[in-house]
Amino acid sequence: MESDDDADSFRCAICGIREGDSSNLTQSSLQTNATVRCGHQFCMPCVERELSRKKVFLCPTCGTEVKRVTLSTRTLDDVQCEKDTSWRRKVLKVYNKGEEDFPSLVDYNNYLEEVEDIIYAIVNEEPNAEECKSKFKKHGVEDKNQIDIRLSRRVAQDRMIADRIAAQQREAEQKKREHLEEEKMVKSYKQRYKLEAKEVLFGRREEVSKKLVDARMQGYKDKLRPTGQGASYLHGSRVREPSEGMQKDKKPTREEYLKRQSAGGGIPARSTQTHDRNWQLTVSTLFFHHV
Question: 55, 71, 110, 217: which could form a disulfide with 31 (CB 3.0–4.6 Å)?
Answer without folding.
Answer: 71
